[in-house]
């Protein structure tokens, strides 16, 4: 059990891990803000958890909800700000044959996974973006509603056909960050 | 046999309940905060300060 805990709960990671609790390591200011908010809320929740069996007779928990709501709104609006991205766009870059960089990226099927690769997360072409640079993702879908999410970057954005959504990130450090749709289409 | 006086029972139970609830809750809340959150933030800040030093060293080289 201790081994499990030390491997999953306490270890640092940029991807989901077996028996994982808590968050992946943050790589953007947004995610740091989200973790901070979570811990702030947890502080109040722990007070409720241990105090409520007795104090529920007297206290109105709306007070606690208000305490939680204000930092939550603040973070929500801060995260909604889209900073001016760097002047380049992905298609501005050329490959060695002077062609625009444009590619498809698909999940690696389970049968093709290499040793140590992550199931349902590994892709055949990784998107490479610079660190310490404002990056904006413009997200849409071709068929049904999907979503683009990367927990370590603290982003999750729905992808709708016929509509463009945007999220911006500033990545603080190097890493390989995994994510996937969190809007599973109904089959 | 004399019976216990009933005056002040409500106030006593109110004070006891609320102080025990807040005492327990706040203690465990601070245990979480200083036992988990603050060390995690410290570890993260240490990582970023090391990274910053490394970047400065790379830029100087």
UniProtKB/TrEMBL annotation, chain A:
Gene Ontology biological process terms, A to Z: ATP synthesis coupled electron transport
Species per Swiss-Prot/TrEMBL record: Amylocarpus encephaloides
Catalytic reaction(s) noted: 4 Fe(II)-[cytochrome c] + O2 + 8 H(+)(in) = 4 Fe(III)-[cytochrome c] + 2 H2O + 4 H(+)(out)
Source organism, top-level taxon: Eukaryota
Membrane topology note: Multi-pass membrane protein
Listed name of the protein: Cytochrome c oxidase subunit 2
An MF annotation (GO) of this entry: cytochrome-c oxidase activity
Family, as annotated: Belongs to the cytochrome c oxidase subunit 2 family.
Automatic annotation (TrEMBL), chain B:
Record's keyword annotation contains Nucleotide-binding: no
Main localization category: mitochondrion
Cellular component annotations (GO), alphabetically ordered: mitochondrial inner membrane
Keywords tagged on the record: Membrane, Mitochondrion, Mitochondrion inner membrane, Oxidoreductase, Transmembrane, Transmembrane helix
Pathway info: Energy metabolism; oxidative phosphorylation
Gene Ontology molecular function, alphabetical: cytochrome-c oxidase activity; oxidoreductase activity
Gene Ontology BP annotations: mitochondrial electron transport, cytochrome c to oxygen
Top-level taxon of origin: Eukaryota
InterPro entries (alphabetical): Cyt_c_oxidase_su7a_fun
Membrane topology: Single-pass membrane protein
Subcellular localization, as worded in the UniProt entry: Mitochondrion inner membrane
Residue ranges crossing the lipid bilayer per the database entry: 14-36
Family as reported in the entry's similarity comment: Belongs to the fungal cytochrome c oxidase subunit 7a family.
PANTHER family: CYTOCHROME C OXIDASE SUBUNIT 6C (PTHR28264:SF1), CYTOCHROME C OXIDASE SUBUNIT 7A (PTHR28264)
Job of this protein: Component of the cytochrome c oxidase, the last enzyme in the mitochondrial electron transport chain which drives oxidative phosphorylation.
Entry protein name: Cytochrome c oxidase subunit 9, mitochondrial
Organism per entry: Amylocarpus encephaloides
């Amino acid at each position: 059990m201790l081994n499990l805990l030390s491997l999953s709960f306490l270890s640092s990671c940029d991807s989901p891990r077996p028996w994982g609790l808590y968050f992946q390591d943050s790589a953007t200011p947004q995610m740091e803000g989200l973790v901070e908010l979570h811990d702030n809320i947890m502080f109040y929740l722990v007070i409720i958890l241990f105090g409520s069996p007795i104090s529920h007779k007297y206290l109105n928990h709306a007070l606690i909800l208000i305490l939680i709501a204000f930092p939550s709104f603040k973070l929500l609006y801060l995260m909604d700000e889209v900073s001016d991205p760097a002047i380049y766009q992905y298609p501005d870059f050329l490959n060695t044959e002077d062609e625009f960089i444009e590619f498809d990226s698909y999940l690696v099927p389970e049968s093709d996974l290499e040793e140590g690769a992550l199931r349902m997360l590994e892709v055949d072409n990784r998107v490479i973006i610079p660190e310490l640079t404002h990056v904006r993702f413009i997200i849409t879908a071709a068929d049904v509603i999907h979503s683009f999410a990367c927990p370590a970057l603290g982003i999750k954005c729905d992808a709708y056909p016929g509509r463009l959504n945007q999220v911006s990130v500033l990545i603080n450090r190097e890493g390989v960050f995994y994510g996937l749709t969190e809007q599973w289409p109904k089959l | 046999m004399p019976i216990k006086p009933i005056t002040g029972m409500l106030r006593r139970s109110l004070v006891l309940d609320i102080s025990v609830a807040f005492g327990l809750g706040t203690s465990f809340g601070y245990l979480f905060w200083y036992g988990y959150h603050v060390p995690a933030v410290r570890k993260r800040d240490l990582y970023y300060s090391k990274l910053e030093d490394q970047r400065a060293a790379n830029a100087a080289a």
